[in-house]
Specification:
Strand content: under 5%
Mean pLDDT: 79
Distance between the termini: 87 Å
Low-confidence stretches: none
Shape: elongated
Helix content: 25-40%
Number of strands: 0
Order of helices and strands: HH
Number of helices: 2
Radius of gyration: 32 Å
Length: about 70
């Protein structure tokens, strides 16, 4: 592969007595930054609880609105 223009400039600075810019770069973390943090689709499907079709307590009727008649 060919050298990038920035790499050529860094090497030129080193040859001519410039400072090494690679020393001022931060260190790499001790952990992998490419790990998946969220669960996969299979893991999500395996952890879901099955719904009980006979459980009518979980039905929410709060959206039902009956206006009061004006007297």
């Amino acid at each position: 592969m060919a050298k990038s223009r920035a790499k050529k400039k860094r090497e030129h600075l080193l040859r001519n007595g410039g400072r090494d810019v690679l020393l001022s770069r931060g260190s790499t973390p001790s952990f992998s930054t490419h790990e998946r943090m969220t669960k996969s689709k299979k893991e999500m499907l395996n952890t879901r609880k099955p719904k009980n079709p006979y459980d009518h307590i979980s039905v929410d009727d709060k959206g039902f609105f009956v206006p009061k008649k004006a007297a």
